[in-house]
Amino acid sequence: MQSIENVGNGVMRVGAHIADVSYFVHSYTKLDRDEKDCSTIVYFIQCNIPMLPRLLCEEMRLLNPGVDRLAFSVMWDIDSLCEILDHWIGRAVFGSYCKFSYQNAQEIIEGTFKRNKTISNDTGFAGLHGQFKWQDIIVDIQNVHKIAKHRRESRFGNGALKLNSWALLLSLQNLRDNLKDDPPLFDIIVLYATKLMRLATYFCTG
């Protein structure tokens, strides 16, 4: 779940939030042991087997609109140039005011969203909660998109690797072929090439 708030002086406070399950699952309890045995959610075509009891994972911990939930949050203060000024990590109480499907959010980004369209829970499109208006939602999503896009471009501009790039894969293969008699040297070169990426703290994964 994401949030954005204008804190003044051209600074936006952007947040990423996930449900704080640790509030409900205490160490060394039966629930904790059962959770470790399950390890993860198992997905099938028509259903899934949750890691936690359904009441907990589908009701009590979900960041549903209009309900305050316990969350683990990361907050960034970002200036008008989309540069990160400060950040905060910790537990919080999070209240969502709207839930969108990916399609709804994409329509807002592309400017094709119609505020008078039929509201449908089937598409993940729900009503507003709190004092917010549709124009607030549209502006917030567009601002989050602008910041995320800029941070992504900045990350790749500073040398982040696009592992799905054929050019990168071919370059690494050519380098490996040229250094086939000295494998350790290839490993050292790649290590130095990715050093900054490994040490970086990313705003988003892109």
What is the strand tally?
Answer: 6
Distance between the termini: 16 Å
The whole-number mean of residue pLDDT values reads 75
- Give me the side-by-side strand order of the main sheet: 1-2-5-6
Q: Which value, in Å, is the CA radius of gyration?
A: 22 Å
Helix content: 25-40%
- Helix/sheet category: alpha+beta
H/E order of the elements?
Answer: EEHEEHEEHHHHH
Strand percentage lies at 15-25%
Largest sheet: 4 strands, antiparallel
Shape: globular
Low-confidence stretches: 118-124, 196-206
Written account of the structure:
Helix content is 38%, strand content 21%. The radius of gyration is 22 Å and the shape is globular. With 206 residues, the chain is α+β, with helices and mostly antiparallel strands. Residues 118-124 and 196-206 have low confidence and may be disordered. A hairpin with a 5-residue loop joins strand 5 and strand 6 (84-95). The two termini are 16 Å apart.
List the helices and strands and how they pair.
Layout: E1 2-8, E2 11-19, H1 30-38, E3 42-43, E4 48-49, H2 54-60, E5 68-78, E6 84-95, H3 102-110, H4 134-157, H5 166-178, H6 183-193, H7 195-199
Antiparallel strand pairs: 1-2, 2-5, 3-4, 5-6
Q: What is the compact description of this entry?
A:
Residues 1-206 form the RNB domain. With 206 residues, this protein is an alpha+beta fold.
Task: Jot down its keywords.
21% strand, four-stranded antiparallel β-sheet, 6 strands, 206 residues, two-stranded antiparallel sheet, alpha+beta
